[in-house]
């Protein structure tokens, strides 16, 4: 599989480009918080969508909908948690942990808008994203 042709990889490349050029987007009427939050958000969705594609490719993994859990008499597990749990099943603990940390940062970036984002959090989000992609390598077929 040539992952470079997939939107998941393009989102990864875009996130790196955005982080590299973020100073260009910070203007008097656009604070760094908006740009930094966008970087974290894109880093999460790049890693999450890549992990989901990886799971689908190697195992035919499919996300379960809320009604499917209810039909089985089970408590609903979010799609984000389903992906992390399935990664653990395939012994990809580091990828699962990095997705969890990215998810935590994304929630702060998206929902706690009056809380500042630190440079460390921005750098960590890029590191976590790259860790997920590096652990979940696709084999060229």
Protein model, in words:
- The chain is globular.
- The model has no long low-confidence stretch (mean pLDDT 91).
- The protein starts with 6 loop residues before the first helix and ends in a 6-residue tail after the last helix.
- Helices cover 70% and strands 0% of the residues.
- The chain has 141 residues and is mainly α.
- It contains seven helices and no strands.
- The protein has helices at residues 7-20, 22-25, 32-59, 66-71, 79-89, 93-111, 119-135.
Short description:
With 141 residues, the protein is mainly alpha-helical. It has helices at 7-20, 22-25, 32-59, 66-71, 79-89, 93-111, 119-135.
Secondary-structure map:
Elements: H1 7-20, H2 22-25, H3 32-59, H4 66-71, H5 79-89, H6 93-111, H7 119-135
Helix pairs in contact: 1-3, 1-7, 3-5, 3-6, 3-7, 5-6, 6-7
Shape: globular
From the N-terminal CA to the C-terminal CA, the straight-line distance is 5 Å
Number of strands: 0
**Percent in strands:** under 5%
What's the SSE pattern? Answer: HHHHHHH
Evaluate the radius of gyration: 16 Å
What structural category arises from helix and sheet content?
mainly alpha
Average of pLDDT: 91
Low-confidence stretches: none
Please give the count of helices.
7
Largest sheet: number of strands, sense, barrel closure: none
Task: Please give the share of residues in helix.
Answer: over 70%
